[in-house]
Amino acid sequence: MVEVLFPMMTGDPQDQGVLTLWLVPDGDAVRPYQVLAEVTIDKFDAEINAPAAGVLTWHVQEGDEVAQGAVIATIA
């Protein structure tokens, strides 16, 4: 199982970000480097890519506040 993490986007790890959009439905198969989600923090937007192939399982929902470095999904 591979963890998908919210990226470190600011110099302060205490800053919270928001998962703005899932681009792949929960339970779907993904391939390496596929864009999975969009996130934002302090007006900085980023895309999260799949680190491996497998089946995506969400751990947070769209609109959730998330700590930088936190697990947002797993791929098995």
Automatic annotation (TrEMBL):
InterPro entries: Biotin_lipoyl, Single_hybrid_motif. Residues 1-76 form the Lipoyl-binding domain. It comes from the Bacteria. This is Lipoyl-binding domain-containing protein.
